[in-house]
Specification:
Elements lengths: L4 E6 H15 L3 E5 L1 H5 L3 H10 L4 E4 L2 H9 L6 E3 L8 H6 L3 E4 L2 H14 L3 E6 L14 H13 L3 E7 L11 H20 L5 E3 L3 H6 L7 E4 L21 E6 L2 E5 L4 E2 L5 E2 L4 E6 L17 E3 L2 E3 L1 E2 L7 E4 L10 E5 L9 H7 L4 H6 L7 E4 L3 H8 L1 E2 L1
Parallel strand pairs: 1-20, 2-3, 2-9, 3-4, 4-5, 5-6, 6-7, 7-8, 20-21
Antiparallel strand pairs: 1-10, 10-19, 11-14, 12-13, 14-18, 15-16, 17-18
Helix pairs in contact: 1-3, 6-7, 7-8
């Protein structure tokens, strides 16, 4: 480790996860979702690794993310999953980026953008089957389908996909999953009878792709799974591997007497003479302040609790009588193979999910890449080891 801290990303792990997921999802095609800077792993390196692993499609949220991938020379089929009115849709259309629409108003915006781009848009119509987030409700769906068919007849767009999203697929046995599948079948049946002939129907997110076989339609959308993460109870299955390891080096070590208050508010006080080590990561880097007191660090073959309040740029570990020294490595999370915590454990300990942990790692923590494609990744968004 060259710097005081790094988020090391193994691109071979991402590619291997995609390959394993593709094999288990066949014959469905795989979309690797690389939104939010590739879940904090780096959007361009993650996308390239996913395509290398067999992902046919890529998914993002914002048009800006899609255009960044195109500017990097990534030509895989690409869908913007969130319909945002002010996005640069004309540029997306010219860049061969598919767009999502879940309302008549969005279809109108896309038609205007297609006229500006001078070519028809490729559109995936989204049905709200129960998440109550984006997409058209059952009541709105006929008007959305009619508007899309009219726009298609006018040469402004082609409806190439029909899709939806689950609310509770990560809760095994939740009855809403079957209800949403039935609602999606109703929506697709209506659209197809009205004259839409989609290339793709898709509803499965990571959790559904893993445990709801009947949700694996023409395409499955895999987000956390390609990085070795999942919101399922207990996390991802063992055949998926976490791709990111967050680590740092102790920047200062000091011996203190019993009764020494540590960090803001002295919420932690040493019970005996102890060695304190300073870790140069804090909540500005994505280490949640709520981690104070949690047994979520690993050094010298053992786990250690966070001593006292996590600060903006640093936190302290009480190593007791362990002979640590400045420059020693501390791992916050990783694959877990050597006994270090995982992002899943961080999420469970802090009442959240592993996705929030990895996407929260700040930009000032350098991403360092290993594996095939690491040198290109270094040029794109980080460094290589």
């Amino acid at each position: 480790m060259e710097s005081h801290a790094e988020a090391a990303v193994d691109l071979d792990v991402i590619a291997g996860n995609v390959t394993a997921l593709r094999e288990r999802s066949a014959p469905s095609e795989v979309m690797a979702v690389v939104k939010a800077d590739g879940y904090g792993h780096g959007i361009i390196p993650a996308a390239r690794a996913a395509v290398r692993g067999g992902a046919r499609w890529l998914g993002v949220v914002h048009v800006a993310e899609a255009l960044k991938l195109r500017a990097a020379g990534i030509g895989a089929p690409l869908l913007c999953l969130m319909a945002i009115g002010e996005d640069a849709h004309a540029a997306a259309i010219r860049a061969r980026v598919d767009l999502a629409a879940g309302s008549v108003a969005m279809i109108r915006r896309i038609c205007a953008a297609a006229a500006e781009a001078g070519q028809p848009a490729r559109v995936h119509l989204k049905a709200d089957t129960g998440l109550s987030r984006g997409g058209a409700t059952a009541r709105e769906w006929p008007s959305v389908v009619d508007a899309a068919l009219a726009a298609q007849a006018g040469g402004h767009l082609r409806v190439v996909g029909l899709w939806s999203h689950f609310a509770s697929a990560d809760e095994p046995g939740n009855p809403s999953v079957g209800g949403q599948l039935a609602a999606f079948r109703d929506a697709t049946d209506y659209a197809e009878k009205a004259g839409i002939t989609p290339e793709l129907r898709h509803i499965a997110n990571t959790a559904a792709a893993l445990i709801v076989p009947e949700a694996r339609l023409d395409l499955v959308r895999l987000g956390g799974a390609i990085y070795g993460l999942s919101t399922l109870p207990g996390g991802a299955p063992g055949w998926l591997r976490p791709a990111m390891t967050l680590r740092a080096r102790l920047t200062q070590v000091k011996r203190v007497p019993p009764g020494t208050g540590v960090s803001y508010g002295h919420r932690y006080v040493t019970s005996a003479e102890s060695t304190l080590g300073l870790v140069p990561l804090g909540y500005a880097d994505g280490v949640p302040r709520a981690a104070s007191g949690a047994l979520l660090t690993y050094a010298r073959g053992a786990r250690w609790p966070v001593a006292g309040t996590v600060c903006m740029d640093q936190f302290v570990i009480d190593f007791g009588d362990e002979p640590v020294a400045e420059g020693d490595e501390v791992v916050l999370f990783g694959p877990g193979a050597d006994g270090e915590p995982t992002a899943q454990e961080w999420g469970e300990a802090l009442g959240t999910i592993s996705y929030e942990i990895v996407t929260g790692i700040g930009a000032r923590v350098p991403r360092v890449y290993t594996g095939d494609g690491a040198h290109g990744a270094a040029r794109a968004s980080g460094r290589v080891r």
